[in-house]
Description:
The protein is an alpha/beta fold. It has helices at 25-35, 53-60, 73-86, 99-108, 126-136, 197-209, 229-239, 255-261, 274-290, 310-318, 329-339, 343-352, and strands spanning 43-47, 65-69, 92-95, 113-118, 140-151, 164-168, 171-177, 185-190, 212-218, 246-251, 266-271, 295-300. It has a seven-stranded mixed sheet, covered by helices on one side. The protein has a five-stranded parallel sheet with strand order 10-9-8-11-12, with helices on both faces. It binds 4'-phosphopantetheine. 4'-phosphopantetheine binds at residues 189-191, 218, 220, 254-255, 283, 286-287, 355-356. 4'-phosphopantetheine (PNS) binds at residues 189-191, 218, 220, 254-255, 283, 286-287, 355-356.
Amino acid sequence: MRIISGSARGARLAPVPRGVRPTSDRVRESLFNALGQFFDGGSVLDLYAGTGALGIEAVSRGMERATFVEKASRAAASIRENLRRTGLEGRAEIRREGVARALDDLLEHGRTYNLIFMDPPYRIAAKEVEGVLSRLGVLLAPGGRVVVERGGAPEEVLLGEKGVTRRYGGTVVTVFDRSDFMINVAVCPGSFDPITVGHLDVIRRASGVFDHVVVAVGANRVKNPRLTPDGRRALVEKVTANLGNVSVEVMDGLLVEFARERGARVIVKGLRAVSDFNSEFEQAQLNQTLDAEVETMFIMASAKHSFLSSSAVREIASYGGDVSEFVPDEILETVMEAYAGTQADTEPRIKTESKG
Ligand code: PNS
C-alpha cells in the first residue's frame, strides 16, 4: 500500500497488521478523486482508523491536521509507523480508545472537523454504525463531509437514505454533507430498572416519528438501581434490536448535555397518568431552563400500560410473582433472576418514588 498523492506521494506504508482490513489503494484513489479539491487546510477525523491510510492520504493532500481513533494496539502502532514513514507525525494525534468514548470527549471539547472517515469493521452491528453516524453531524465544520465505508452488500440504509453512495467492487462508500445530518434525533431517557412493555411501546412509537431515537439509560446514582447501567443498557438493547433507527447508550451526566452532544433537539418521555404530571412538568421546566433549545415532548401511554411501572415490576419479581405481562419476553428470565429476593430494599423505594 502506498500514499497516492500529495506531499507524501509514493510513500510505502507498513505491512498491514493482522485483523485490520485496509481500504485498498484502488478504492482510496477513486474515493479521493470523488471528493475533489477538498484538501486545502482543515482537519480530518479517521474513526476505526486501522492503518490510518485514509487520514494520512488526506493530510498528504493538504489537510492541516488529523485525529486517528483506533482501539487495537497493533493497528495504533501501524498508524504511528505510517506517520513516521510519511513524515507527518507532527500533524497528527492518535487516540487509542473506543469510538464512543473518543466522540464523547471530542464533543465535550467542541472540536470540529472538515472531513470524517468512518470505516467500521464489518462485524460491527448496523445499529452501532447508525448510532455513531447520528453523532457526527455536530462534529462537522460548515462545508464538511463524512465518508462511510462498508463492505459487501449492506442492507441497512444510513440516515434515512441520505448521502451519495458509490460502489467500488466489493466496497460501498457513502459520502454525507452537513445538510444530511439535519435529521430529527430524539432522546428517550429513563432509568429502565428494568425496561417494561410500556417503555418499549413509547420507544417504538417515537421511532416511528423521529429519524433516529437514542435511548438514554440514566446512570442514576441517586436512585440506586438494582442493575448496573451497562446491565440495564444490555436489556434495552435486546428488546429494541428490531428497531433499526434506535440506539442505546448509558447517560452519566445532564440530560440536556447528552441531547446536545447527539444533535437531538427533542426529549421524548412517556406520560401515563395525572400522577406523572408533576414530576415530569418539573423535569421539563428544569431542562428548559438549562437549555431552551431542547424541547420535551410527551407520548401518552397506551391505556393498557397506565398502571405499569418499573417499580411494580421490581416488587412483583422480588416476590417471585409473574411479570410476563409487564416485561418483554426476551428479557423475562433475566429480569426474574435479577430482581428476585430484593424485597428489603425495594419497598421503601416504591413508597418514596412518584414514578419509575
Ligand atoms: O425513568 P426515570 O427514573 O423517570 O428517568 C429519570 C431520568 C434518567 C430521565 C432523569 O433522572 C434524568 O434526566 N437524569 C439526568 C440528570 C439530569 O439531567 N437532571 C436534571 C433534569 S431533571
